[in-house]
Design brief:
With about 240 residues, the protein is an alpha/beta fold. The chain contains nine helices and ten strands. It folds into two domains: about 110 residues, Cobalt-precorrin-4 Transmethylase, domain 1; about 120 residues, Tetrapyrrole methylase, C-terminal domain (Methyltransferase, Cobalt-precorrin-4 Transmethylase, Domain 2, 2-Layer Sandwich), CATH 3.30.950.
Length: about 240
């Protein structure tokens, strides 16, 4: 008998339901099964039908979560039962996610799948804080990186980049600043931290490489996006 199940790997956007794509919204309202990560907003989760079978698999730093192998197997099992499965990830499924591993597992099991892109917090969060990622004078390029493992990056090269956007960097902020200063990035380089972007509890802190750690030392910053570069200085001129 043909397996009619299908897995949709869906990006939930930066948080608010307002930033879902039309396609993601449509799929969520029709979901038979939802498998979601920890940072997905409750309002987004509320879109699924009352009959939907919901699985929370975690995937947030420092907190309990399923292993990737267990998630892969769950998706396969549900698909082989003939279910329409929404695998919901915050932001965009392929921006520092493990979507490729899930796709490989689904392909090996002959499970049908489709990727639904989502708005990444890497580009949305700065704009919601009135920080442009590029500017004709102050920033002709931007670089996106994760702070999951700082040793993976060439900090000498990163210090030369006009604009840095750091995901998952809340706990690593002091180390990030120290590494950039070590490679002669200007101590006065502006920094913005955007927490819970697009959601009612959104907060923004601004400072410089030299003082942002001191300014935020009493705060719990995660989940946040860190923007480092002269473009942050445009914020006062672009705020409503």
């Amino acid at each position: 008998m043909e397996n009619l199940g299908k897995v949709y790997l869906v990006g939930a956007g930066p948080g608010s339901v307002d930033f879902l794509t039309v396609r993601a919204h449509q799929l969520l309202t029709q979901a038979q099964v939802l498998v979601h990560d920890a940072l997905v907003n409750a309002d987004v989760l509320a879109l699924v039908p009352a009959t939907c079978d919901v699985h929370s698999v975690g995937k947030r730093g420092g907190q309990p979560s399923w292993s990737q192998a267990a998630i892969n197997q769950l998706l396969i099992d549900l698909c082989q039962q003939g279910k329409t499965v929404i695998r919901l990830k915050s932001g965009d499924p392929f921006i520092f996610g493990r979507t490729a591993a899930e796709i490989q597992a689904l392909k090996a099991a002959n499970c049908a799948f489709e990727v639904i892109p989502g708005l990444s917090s890497a580009t949305v969060a700065p704009l919601l804080a009135s920080v442009p990622l590029t500017d004709p004078v102050l920033g002709s390029q931007f670089t996106v990186l994760t702070a999951h493992d700082l040793e993976l990056h060439n900090w000498e090269a990163l210090a030369q980049m006009a604009v840095l956007v750091v995901l998952m960097g809340g706990k690593a902020l002091p180390d990030i600043c120290d590494r950039l200063l070590r490679y002669d990035k200007r101590p006065e380089t502006p920094v913005a931290i955007v927490q819970w972007a697009s959601q009612p509890q959104q907060r923004v802190w601004t400072g410089t490489l030299l003082n942002i750690t001191q300014q935020t030392k009493a705060e719990t910053l995660s989940p946040c996006i860190i923007v480092i570069g002269e473009v942050v200085g445009l914020r006062p001129y672009l705020q409503p």
